[in-house]
Amino acid sequence: MLNRISKTILLVIIIELCLGGGGRLTTIGPVSLRMVLFCIAIVLTTLLLLSGKSISTRYWKILAAFFLMNLVGVGLGWLNGSAKILIWEDVKPLLYFLILPFFALAIDESSPLNISKIIKVCALLTASLFFLLLILVHSGVFTFLSFYKATEKTVEFFYRGEITFFYKGFLFLGIGSIFFFFSESNKKFLFVTVLVLAIIFSVTRGLLFSLSCTLAAYFIGKKKYYHATSAAIFSLIIVVWGNTSTINFSRWIDANKGDKAYEEASPHLFGDRKYSDEGRFAQIKEVGERVSLTSIFVGHGFGQGIPARPIHMEIAYLEIFHKQGLIGLAFWGSLAWMLFTAYRDSNRSNFANAFFFSSLFVFVESATNQYFNNPIGMSVLLLSLVSLYKLKNHL
Predict the structure, then answer these.
(1) Angle at the Cα of 343 (from 337 to 346), degrees rounded to 5?
(2) φ, ψ at 393 (rounded to 5°)
(3) Helix H segments across 260-370?
(4) Buried-state track 295-304, b at ≥16 Cβ within 10 A, e below 16
(5) Which residues does the chain have with pLDDT short of 70?
(6) Cβ-contact 332, 377 below 8 angstroms
(7) Nearby residues of 287 by Cβ (< 8 Å), 6 or more positions away
(8) Do 312 and 319 touch, CB atoms closer than 8 A?
(9) What is the pTM of this model?
(10) Tens of pLDDT along 109-157?
């Protein structure tokens, strides 16, 4: 009975993660559906362990390392005078890591197939809803302003002028693309195209860059160096000319509205990407200015922000280094190594490829946005880790 309930809750959790973005769309007061599901998972984990179920010692070891790392972060934050509310803001998203034992107990040998199906269906549903919203807005069914007013308070959306938008759950457009790429469906390239087009229409350079890097890594592993070079060149183009292309396209659209001369056309219809890039460089500079011999190893502690970002920084690695030092980076590096070794020892099936390269995608994307140290990206890593070990055990 407990096993059946756990598997059902597992599927519900995955669906919510795939569609729910940062989790605030389903918030009632201070409580969200994601929090409720997390609490249910913890209760089920406790009951399953009390009933005699067990998980591998590898999971307990990484949980022990997780507790130790965060205990150091909290302690240093307290010693350095961090406000309790700021310490809690840093600890809160990391607590989702505690769902790992539930995944280890609920995922069995048949789960990778079900997880894969959910991710692909949810990614297509997200893309379809995105395109539908754009059609409804630009056909005049309702205005972009009304959409903005209805969604702005959720803090889940980032708006590209009055033309398009980015939703935090769009991470799964990239992950869905990877799962389709490694599927055996005869329509997989059609589905990949739909998902990549959705990313392009959301004007999100980071997702395209991360997908290109992930593909390059895959092709290098397969010794398909021509394909790897093509993917690497595309990622380089995004970095070097992505901002300029966005500005030029913005000007072209604005100039063709018919109400402005080209010279007056706004270059920032899709947002000021130069400003966004400069913000990240400013964060790097401010972190660098605060580096000390001690902070290199253990950081400054939770709650210790910087002037540009008092709470969370855009670059996940930068925030971890600033607040937890090399110890924090080593923890996430050890998780990455576990994912790699589990993949290396797996059956290298399409499922194994999809889970491993989705994790790689999350790690690359976290170089420009906070993902692997937030529930939405963390969940991908933990699901992939457990699934890869299940595939490893059934060679």
Answers:
(1) 140
(2) -75, -5
(3) 273-289, 293-298, 316-344, 350-365
(4) beebbbbbbb
(5) 239-277, 393-395
(6) no
(7) 306, 313, 318, 321, 322
(8) yes
(9) 0.90
(10) 888 889 999 999 999 999 999 999 989 988 888 888 898 888 888 889 9
